[in-house]
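May I ask you to comment on the folded chain given beneath this request?
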Amino acid sequence: MSSLYGASTEDVKKRLRPFGIFFEKSLKDLIKGIRSNNETPEQLQDFLNNELAECREEVKSPDFNMKTNAVLKLTYLEMYGFDMSWANFHILEVMSSNNFQQKRVGYLAASQSFYKDSDILMLATNLLKKDLKYDLSNETVKMGVALSGLSTIVTPELARDICDDLFLMLNSTKPYVRKKAVTALFKVFLQYPESLRDGLDRFVARLEDDDTSVISAAVSVICELAKHNPYPFVQFSPLLYEMLIQLDNNWIIIRLLKLFTNLSKVEPKLRYKLLPKVLELMNKTTAISVIYESINCIVKGQMLEKDDYDTAQQCLKQLESLVQAFDPNLRYISCVLFYHIGKINFEFITQYDKVVIGLLKDVDISIRTKALELCSGITSTENIKTVVRTLIKQFVDVDTVQVNDQGVQIDIPQDYKVKVAKTILDVCCLNNYQNIGGEFDWFLKILTDLCIVSQDLNNPEVSTLLGDNFRNIMVKVPSMRDAALEKLIELTSNDDIITKLPDLLKEGIWCFGEYSDLIDNCDTLITMLLNKAEKLPENVIQAMIPALVKLFSTYANEEDKSKSDILGVLSNVIAFMEQKYRSTNFDIQERSVEFYEMLKLCQDSLDDEADGLPLLITDVLPSLFNEYELGPVSHGQQQQLLKSLTLDLDTPFLSPEELHQLMENEGFYDDEDAYYKDDDSAKSIASSTQSHREETEDISPEKDFSMTEEELAALEDHRRQERFDNPFYLNDDSDQYGDKKLINLSDNEDDNELKAPKEPVIKISTKKKKSKNYPSVQVLSDIVVAPSSPDTNQDTKKTNTLRPSDGITLSTSNKLRAFDFSQKHDIGDEGEYTVDQQEIEKLRVKLAEQHIGSNSADADDNEEIIVIKKKKKKSKDKSSKEKTKKKKRHPTGNAISPPVDTDSPTPEHS
């Protein structure tokens, strides 16, 4: 008899799900739906929201197939930014399933979500322990899934609870389980370094495992751990060395070489044992990967010393064949090793200049960029022109490279051109122009060419470097100043260069002013600069203001210059200064105001002077700039000099008695000036002054101290003359004793009360400096004021290292790097850690210092006890544990606990 009621839709779905027939959307259907609903962002967002709502309902289903399917779709939706931490409990349910496919989905979702919620890991600990336990119902593959999932969700607390189970799995009879346990312990060691300290021997024992895969996993884990903290593995160097000799597995050998790279950095003694074996391995193997890792181990493991030419040549001989390989990746990493070897000693790579020049023509821009760093090591007087010519040719937009007899066009990026320009300047200026060999005419042509080709780079750093090099030649090579000035005038006359290389113009203008005596027509140069001033940036204007004054000073003191011409040039410069002293830039405003006032005085003196030029232009103005000739000073010497100065900031200049006496004297003369207008006051002050100067201690008020008018006048003249002769006193009566205008100074020194300084004033010679017999290639060395110190050098360096907060870091956080394996806490017989005796002594000293000065009578009443708390692991004696928890109440209200002392049960008193 058939039923009156047919089966519902849900019943039919439940009956068909065990056979793999689902009516809900699977992951495949979800992906298809996303692809068909991505026409607009709004449409895609609506579709994803609907799917997420369906997953919220499906994940609550008691059917594990539906729950697993919902969790799988949630893991995919998380990539679109949807949070799935709300489903952590449902994920934990899927993880507990006995079905392997469902368990794998659960661990996959846990790896994506559990790291956000540490509380859920407390619930997952027992489940992980169960899955990691091998029995008949727990298959090996399920244990592998649990171990893989554990590595992604481990935390310090979970690592502490699960490490013992993982160490037990190292002794499993199945190599697959041992291998998985070894790899899972890597993340556990990072989060809980104490487990590595306590179980290091058991873990290292896997290096002698019978299965090669387990050995490979153990070596790989130790290699990665040594990157964070290599110290605990140095003691196993003999075992690792034997493995390097005996094993023939290239993969394990590579990992061992990487491991020894880290170990040799902290244990230099390994070099003498390892270096011969690594060289032998490098020379006899045919595997390129082993050859590369052998060289990398020698170089980065600090086994190659500066004077070890034999080892360096063996490594470079192998690298020479690698840099010519067809694989661009191999060429690049070989070029990197070339750079590291050259960084140790540039003499190692000097004979490989043809190899480096070949790398500069490589089809790969990254290889070219790395080869640029090698140019400083291979460049010499013989090949510098070849190297520079090769680099100059690369200032093109498209370069053609021959590859397999075919021309391949590659685009040259702007940043590469900037590095090329910097490299050219570096190799030419290296060691005080040693590579140039005195051919500064050629170097000036190169600088000119760089200025022309660098216009399109729009890089201020290149502009600054070009200007600095022109300035350095002017300062350090006296014989080339004329030629350098001609090049600078030629370049600064170009409007394009002024616009695109402003820093070059800044240094050029400084050179014009500093070496203006080498220029014949300073008035033409002044006119040119004034015409271009409107287009110049503020930093160039700052250098231009004093340069114009220097140029005018030179021009005005040249022979056969008419007074009208000088006034015309001076008027133009004054007009420029007047325009700039209203600038919003403080430096421009300050300089323009100072020189404006100075030049106005010069203009007034020219108007008032009938014959010839006034002293203000012929002597005063040139003496501002021509007192000394500037010399090259080594970089950072100013900071060295400032640090070497010692200032006594404690000793006063005057004693209290001297200071009091000085204050009385100052106040006395101030009163004298204030009351000197009145005759009666003058008489009174004068009488007091006379008595003060005679230092009369016994003064009677009945005595008459009145003075005649002649005596007062003589006293006044004497006082004013003393003030006038005192260089530290500012004279307020300049209208009577000095002329306000410097232009009225007479040539006769006897007619002037302001006498000219006795020091000789250096006058500008009308002869050019090029007439002096300089050596053709004389290069002035940098002046070193004070010897450099390591601390100062560290201060002057600019560090470009990125901090962790500067960007996104994908590295796993760990506690292994800062963990100290040297401090081991031994466990005593009663389950308590033994206390370091030095720590007790430090606490005793600290407590004794606190009691200095206290009343000895109250010492017994205020007795204190040193308490050192240490974390316990397991205590066998419960009574001792309860005893340590008991606390006594001090009469003053302080809680006192008995100390932990393994030597004596009685507490220590201070």
In short: The mean pLDDT is 77. Strands lie at 398-403, 406-411, 888-889, 895-896. Residues 660-693+705-751 form one domain.
